[in-house]
Amino acid sequence: MAETLEKVIEEGRQGEAYAPFANDPNSYNKKFYIESYGCQMNFSDSEIVASILHEEGFGATGKFTEADLVLI
Questions:
Q1: CA distances (Å), 60 to each of 5, 6, 19, in order?
Q2: pLDDT tens-digit series, residues 24-36
Q3: Residue 70: which H helix or E strand, with range?
Q4: Is 28:57 a contact under the CB 8 Å cutoff?
Q5: Distance linking the first and last C-alpha atoms of the chain
Q6: Of 34, 27, 40, which Cα lies nearest the Cα of 61?
Q7: In a 3-state reduction of DSSP, which class is residue 59?
């Protein structure tokens, strides 16, 4: 059977902006902003989406007003 990792999301992280990659304004033409709520699977899904967007040339930002794409 495959091993599973238990990931606990702190209550205080609800609604926290997800910005995993350093945002150098000169490196990215497009920026995204992700806010996650709910269970740990929602946070995991946000990480997957962020990774895909990063591969497509988007940089993360912690401010939704700077983003070209906002996901909540």
A1: 26, 26, 5
A2: 656 788 999 998 8
A3: strand 69-71
A4: yes
A5: 34
A6: 34
A7: strand
